[in-house]
Amino acid sequence: MSYLLVPLGLFILIIALVDIFKTILYINGGGRLSSFTARKIWWVYFKMARGKGKAPILNFAGGTILIGLVAMWIFLIWVGYSLIFLSDPNSVLESSTGENADIIGNIYYVGYTLTSLGNGDLRAGSDFWRIISNIMGMNSMIFISLGISYLLPVLQAVVDKRTLAVYIYQLGRSPKEIINKGFNGEDFSPLYSRLQNLETMLLKHGEHHLAYPILHYFHTHKRSHNIRLNLAILDEALNIQEAYHLDKSANAFTWRVLRGAMDNLAVRLHEGYTSPADDPPDFDYFNDLPDELKNNFEEDPGIPQDDDFNKRRGKLLGYIKKDGWEWEDVVEEK
């Protein structure tokens, strides 16, 4: 017996099961192995797209990663149990002759026990291995159930993510368009009800990203459906309001509440999915403001001399660049 194969097989099984648990059941993100695999698959797609967010090939990255993670878990469990069975030459026998199965036979037996697709040409060699086979079958059943329970909410979260992107896009295709369309000559009342709905959607989106980190890799090359671009547009519109204090009505609190929701989302988007740029982009929106708003100023107040404000905008630029977009995609109405 090759007893050294047993701890090796158990080690691989533990790695796989811990990763499955952390990715599917743990609310605060995916396992290390899953996160590493997802990043590498995304890197390959990003290179094929030449770093361009408009490249349609990036649309396939999320689905590939999702299938790749499931395939990785299946492979690790299969390898782990195969090593355990290979530790004993008598673990699997030919049903017709009673002879020991070869290496391929052991691997085949483990595979069909995991999938319940065997035709009975192999059997466990002893009562001990029958019990191990039962444990393996139950493990497979639990894994399949967990896999289904993971796939469905992830796909629903992808739908919610794109719904949020379109919702923001309808507010305006650029930060200044959100401000200009939302101002009715006196206040921003056309925006208030939509911003209140947006707060709930942003909070939900943040929790989805925490529970399902794979969401970061579900990309779309369509500007209207891309969540990173539209979140950047919304955040920059909030920056304009914050810098110029345009809304002086009693409902200005709506903007601050929405800023809180965006701050919560920024916490969820940890450093693995965003990176600060060297310098924040230009902030020159004053001349594009409605005349009624510009009349409140004697001159352009310029960009706020606030380190946090500048760091936030620099990080915002890094956030979209990591998805293959440029700042022009945020500020230009397309």
From TrEMBL:
Leader sequence segment: none
Keyword Transmembrane helix: yes
UniProtKB keywords: Membrane, Transmembrane, Transmembrane helix
UniProt-listed Pfam families: Ion_trans_2
UniProt keyword annotation of Membrane present: yes
Domain Potassium channel: 71-154
Recorded superkingdom: Bacteria
Transmembrane segments annotated in the record for this chain: 6-27, 57-81, 131-152
The protein, known as: Potassium channel domain-containing protein
Organism per entry: Salegentibacter salarius
